[in-house]
Amino acid sequence: MLLLRYFVIQCKTIEKVMKIKHQIAVSDTGFLFNPSTGESFTVNPVGAEIINLLRQGFTREQIIDEITGNYAVERNSFEKDLHEFAGIMKMYQLLDKDE
After folding, report:
1. Which of 11, 48, 79, 98 is the most exposed place for a label (fewest CB within 10 A)?
2. Cα 46 to chain center, whole Å?
3. Highest taxon of the source (predicted)?
4. 99 belongs to a structural domain
């Protein structure tokens, strides 16, 4: 039951517009740095593209449309991947608190 509750909470989170914290530094190559925690992260090219789309203000649906239109990936599969990616970003405090 706890796992189901976590899943529902995470689904509600991804439905909102995700916003990366303004102080997160992002390079073109997918290197992220959080100055408030001192942590750095590297994402793959698709992750970097997602972050770029988020910074441009794309919604969840717009990101899904953009990525599935540019890559050979099924929509349902990418929706799950995006959900997981958002959960990881939230866990590492890369998203605004209201997200």
Report:
1. 98
2. 11
3. Bacteria
4. no
